[in-house]
Amino acid sequence: MAKKSSVFICGNCTYQTSQWIGKCPECEEWNTFEEQLQGKTPTSNHLAIKQLEKERPKLLDEIDINQEIRTSTGINEFDRVLGGGLVKGSLILVGGEPGIGKSTLLTKVLGNLSQRDVENRVLYISGEESTSQIASRMRRLGIENNQNMFIYHEKDLENIFAEIKIIKPKFLVVDSIQTTLSPELQSAPGTISQVREVTFEIMNLSKNQGITSFIIGHITKEGAIAGPKILEHMVDTVIYFEGDQNGYYRLLRGIKNRFGDSNEVGIFEMTGAGLMEVSNPSEYFLDDHENEGHGRCTTCILEGTRPLFVEIQALVVENKFGNSRRTTQGFDNNRLSMLIAVIEKYFGISLSFFDVYVNVAGGMKLLSRESDLCIIAAVLSSYFNKSLDSRTVWIGEVGLTGEVRSTPRMDIRLRSIQQLSYKKIITSKKNLESKEILVNNLAVNNISELKNIFD
Description:
This protein is of the alpha/beta class and 455 residues long. It has helices at residues 47-50, 76-82, 102-116, 131-140, 157-167, 192-209, 230-234, 281-285, 333-347, 372-383, 410-419, 429-432, 451-454, and strands at residues 6-10, 16-17, 33-37, 70-71, 86-87, 91-96, 122-126, 149-153, 171-175, 212-217, 237-242, 249-257, 265-271, 274-277, 296-303, 306-318, 326-329, 354-360, 392-394, 397-398, 404-405, 424-428, 440-444. The longest helix is centred in the middle third of the chain and has 18 residues, at 192-209.
């Protein structure tokens, strides 16, 4: 029997080499190469492409540009992340940790779509669960007596496309992309070449037949979607499901969206009846915020176009062993070390013999820098044992020279601050220039101007 040749492919940039190497010379990432058997190269006109008529190039003036007609999923938080609803023929990638709720969410979405219109045929394809398992989950979510919902347990892409041709669904879910395989390749399911090929075929099917498709993707231990990076480039929308599996909240974050704003966020709560929308996320992240306490401070961040009010908690305790700790939850640890250095410089206090702990309440992760001023205020509040007014909002990025820098899209934050009846806002002077402010405010240029608050 002839010996099978193999090739090593980088999982990050798809660079190929004949032997394993530790560091990829193309993307310079470590330990990303996987061995794959070389088989016949799939032709470019099979499966979905072969069934479609060839399209000729058109002049720009010959193309009719119709305004996108969006279809609501029946879940407002999901529609927000999608940019207002589903676009016909779009391909959406949903990734997240095991057990986070990806299948539950998409099952609920398909149930809503199938019950809204008798012509909305939907097809749920799973390579991981049996049809009875999927049906049990659907009944638990209240999806019953549905003549438009089709469930199919299959991994072979050719069989899947054959059933799609018969059923002609408007909406499709593939759970998951790592368990689906193309018979044109000899490699195992989940390998780089299989994931790339299967996604490419589903993308062509969606675009040419106008099927709105969801594909569920596993993630690696680093938190990225398993498979080649090109997978995220091929799809129209990339959505990550975040959250603590032991907690109750789930965060649906849009990373890429060709039909709307990226970085939009939807908040869900996991209950016995499935995922439920959180109508007022700020109240969720500010639980019991009326209680006064040392080291508590409120800031307003933007997730996409949505303002969210979150509470930052800080604890400063003396360390008698001389090896101080800097520990964060939901915030960059290196950023905290920098802010502590700024505090020591411009407040004239030494935190070298103190442990500093910073936590973002509710499990939120702060990726932007408009919360710097709030973190400094929380640390100083704990250090001086001085409570801060819970109805005061602190907003501003702090630089190494102690200056409080301006924050983008301040109008949206101010509007929410006024609607929620906060008493005061402390921020940069530039943030308040030429703006109508209906609440008390304190404009600062440098954090040293805050000394009188903590005296």
